[in-house]
Amino acid sequence: MENKKWRWIDHFGINAYWLGINISSGVITPLLLPYLVLLFMPEEQKNTYLANVRVIGLAVAMLVQPLAGMLSDRNTSKYGRRRPFIFVGTIGNIVFLSLIGMTPLLMNSASQGAFQTSTGFTTAYIGLLIGIVLLQISSNISHGALQGVIPDLVPENQRGQSSGVKAVLELLPVFLVLFIGPLVDKGLVGLVVAIIAAGFLVTMVITLLAAKETPLTEKPTESIREPFLRLVALTAIFVGITRIALWFVSASGKYLGERGTSVEMQVALVGLAGLIAMAGSIFIGVYFGAWVGIGKQARSQTSFIWWIVNRLMFLAAVGSIQGFAQYFLRDVLQLPNAATMTTVLLAVVALFLMPSAIFGGKLADKWGKKKLVRYAGLIAFTGTLILLFSRNMPMVIVSGCVIGLGTGTFMASNWALGTDLVPKAQAGKYLGISNLAGAGAGIVGAGIGGPMADFFNKLQPGLGYLVIFAIYGLLLLISAVTLVKVKAD
């Protein structure tokens, strides 16, 4: 395998399903969820309710994805270790997307008013929450297994290139969903979920045909009970720590508000509390969560743990900026077609994301993966700094392009770094645990940032986005510093 020279078409085939996964996340997170939450719940609390859906769904993902990866490591199916999980997860995705597509119909339910009065939530919002949770279960069954494909099949000296192709396919949906923004603005939810489902189905078929797996002949003898309990504990620890951190920020804001503290002082103090809460949740949550999830081997895997810290900080910042972009354009720039303009922004950003991802993968193989990851954090920080001063769409696009340059470089080089750090025989388990960064990013960034945005927006319209974007910029800066703990290259 080490002597085989892979062609671009080979790398594309085994990574194709990443395109389907990211069509889904690229539409649901920045476009569909904000639209539906605003449709179902009060305007002044939209960021909090959006955060609630994301946190609950991502907590489920944090548990399911590493479990699926671990189970796929042990799978002795004649079709291979990973492919059966990808197939089953895709079928579930199509079913649960259909449930989400039907949630607007619940707005006309006769029991809607009574249910909202008694619970504080609309029937449609509860339906959306259930649909998202079920989708997270099925999607992460396939996602957890897919993460093991590159370390399973690709020679080590070509993983940077393969990770670059993976990164491009993760970013390509930005162009594919350009026309979906107007569909969301028009309320054509059913059509949107049908497009997502088609993306899953087509890319699944390509990857299943391209991934030439050799079946596992002997099933590992170790019990799965202890690793499973460790994953449950990992999820509980991380989510619990972030909820305590959110309470800390909320209590700080309430305390200062009751004492008539000036807006400027509240921005400084509650903003600082938010930074401490997010960064502290990441450090403490990853440290204890990863040690619990990995077990005794964690002592020899400190570089892998710090890699998760770096990845989580970066993704928490960039992912949350993307997640709140539609509300930022709507509330700060006062754009009436915010969903449409969000897709335009993401498409322009992708012009910088894709080439930096392609060349970032090659440069990572040549110059060193850790060095590229550090530069990526500094570049994305610069873009976020520009965003803080953006008061019109052209400035937002400039900031997004700089963030895109950093993100594309990060997506290729960081994942390649991670595949070098994990034990190959347990790649599914370890890269599943790395979902502390994938799912944890939304739990930290949106889970704490959403309520903070609503808090500051009540003090001054639009202020909340500037505060949380400033915090995200500092997280990007800190992410570059954490690499000193990663021993690689």
Give a short overview.
By secondary structure, the protein is mostly helical. The protein contains 20 helices and no strands. The protein has a single domain, classed as Up-down Bundle (Growth Hormone, Chain: A), CATH 1.20.1250.20.
Written overview of the protein:
- The chain is mostly helical and 489 residues long.
- The protein is built from 20 helices and no strands.
- The chain has helices spanning 8-40, 46-73, 83-101, 112-119, 123-146, 149-153, 159-171, 173-176, 180-185, 189-210, 225-258, 263-294, 302-323, 325-331, 338-367, 369-388, 393-421, 427-433, 435-459, 463-481.
- Helix 16 runs antiparallel to helix 20 and helix 19 packs antiparallel against helix 20 (463-481).
Label this structure with key terms.
single chain, 489 residues, mainly alpha, Growth Hormone, Chain: A, 20 helices, 79% helix, 0% strand
Spell out the blueprint of helices and strands:
Blueprint: H1 8-40, H2 46-73, H3 83-101, H4 112-119, H5 123-146, H6 149-153, H7 159-171, H8 173-176, H9 180-185, H10 189-210, H11 225-258, H12 263-294, H13 302-323, H14 325-331, H15 338-367, H16 369-388, H17 393-421, H18 427-433, H19 435-459, H20 463-481
Q: Supply the helix-strand structural class.
A: mainly alpha
Gyration radius, rounded = 21 Å
Which homologous superfamily in CATH is the superfamily?
MFS general substrate transporter like domains
Q: How many helical stretches?
A: 20
Please tally the β strands and state the result.
0
